[in-house]
Amino acid sequence: MAKPHNVTIYGYNYTNTGIGSFEVNGQGGGNLEVSIPDAGGGKSVCCVTVFTPLRKPRPVTIKWTRDGDTWCEQEVALAPLDTPNPKYFEVHFYPDGHIELAVTQESSDPRLKLDRASRGGRYEDEKLNINNDSKFARCKLGYR
Q: pTM higher than 0.70, yes or no?
């Protein structure tokens, strides 16, 4: 029988610009600065519920905004898991626009070790800070 666990949401932002706010199945994950080599860009936020063991992939809805006006939504599969004592629900935002999820017992180091120009941008030259949100996600004005 599957057991519920309330786990901490933690985001990793490998994209070129900051994320103003993100959610996991409607649960707030906070804002995400652009990551640095030893930090993902965000703070931990409580909580989302996961069930273990998870025998089949489960769809998870990730929703985010960068400017507060345009919201993007992407459904991502949470892979089967059998973590005995999960503590973290990690959301990894990649520069090409795809998102990966992980449920872990310890918080992870960033998967990509990237430098940044500022908390809100990967590069000093704004023209280089490309946003690929709409490549895999549905984006529109307004929250709904």
A: yes
* List of residues 6+ apart from 51 with CB closer than 8 A: 2, 3, 4, 5
Read off the pLDDT of each residue in 125-136 and give the average, rounded to a whole number: 95
Structure tokens at 53: 């063991």
pLDDT mean over 82-103? 95
**Angle ∠(112,114,119) on CA atoms, nearest 5:** 120
Does residue 75 come out as left (phi exceeding 0), alpha (psi in the -120 to 50 range) or beta? beta
Convert 57-67 to b/e letters by CB count within 10 Å (16 or more is b).
ebebebbbbbe
Question: What's the pLDDT tens digit per position in 6-15?
Answer: 999 999 999 9
Residue 141 burial (C-beta neighbours within 10 Å; 0-12, 13-18, 19+): exposed
Contact between 26 and 50 (Cβ < 8 Å): no
Rounded Cα distance, 120 and 118, in Å: 5
